[in-house]
Amino acid sequence: MSDNMKIQLHDEVQDKVQKNTQKKITSQEQTFLVSDDKGSLQLNVIHGYLTCCYWSKGISRELVATAISNSMCFGLYLNDRQIGFARVITDKAAFAYLADVFVLPEYGNRGLGTALIDFIMQHSDLQGLRRFMLCTLDAHELYKKFTFTAVDNPQSMIQINKPGLYLTQ
User: How many whole angstroms separate alpha carbon 132 and alpha carbon 119?
Assistant: First the structure.
C-alpha cells in the first residue's frame, strides 16, 4: 500500500472515530445518564451482574474486561453509580451484535432499558448496518420496539454454542 493510500485510509478512519456521546433521561423524578464513554464503566458492577445471569454465569472478571475492551460499550448511570450496561460487537459498517444488556433489578420497570437501547440504536456509529442481531430468552417485547424480529430463515443460521463454558474455567 502506498503512503498516500495509508494516509487517506487513516484520515477516513479518523473521521469515523466517534467522540463520546451521552444523553440525560428523566424517570420518576430522577435524572439518569446514558453514555458511550468506556472510561466511566464500573467493571465491578458489570462483572457482578454478568457472573450471575443466565447467559454468562460464572464469567471471569478478565473475560468481561476483554469483552469490554473489544466492543462498543454503553453505560447507564444514576449520579456516579452504574446501574445498566450494554455492549455492541461491530465492524461499524455492515454488522453488529448486541450483547450483555442489563439494568439492575432495583431500577426495573422505569423505561430505562428502553432508553438504553434507544440510545444505542440512535448512535451514529451504528447507522446503515445491514444486519443487527442479538439473542434473548426473555426480552423479545423490548427489542420489538426497535424493529428486531425473529430470524427470517433460521435454517440459514449456524453456530458454535458452549453453554456453561465459564463454569468450567
Answer: 15
Beta strands in the chain (DSSP E): 22-27, 30-35, 72-78, 81-90, 95-103, 131-134
**Does residue 8 have a pLDDT over 70?**
no
35 strand-pairing partners = 22, 75
DSSP letter assigned to residue 97: E
User: Pick from 71, 68, 62: which is nearest to 166 by CA?
Assistant: 62
pLDDT in tens, 121-165: 999 999 999 999 999 999 999 999 999 999 999 999 999 988 888
Partnered with residue 89 across adjacent β-strands are 97
Whole-angstrom distance, CA of residue 118 vs CA of residue 113: 8
Cross-strand pairs, 77? 33, 82
| H helix intervals, the chain | 3-16, 43-50, 61-69, 112-122, 140-144
HSE-up of residue 40 (Cα within 13 Å, Cβ side): 21
Report the length, in residues, of the chain: 169
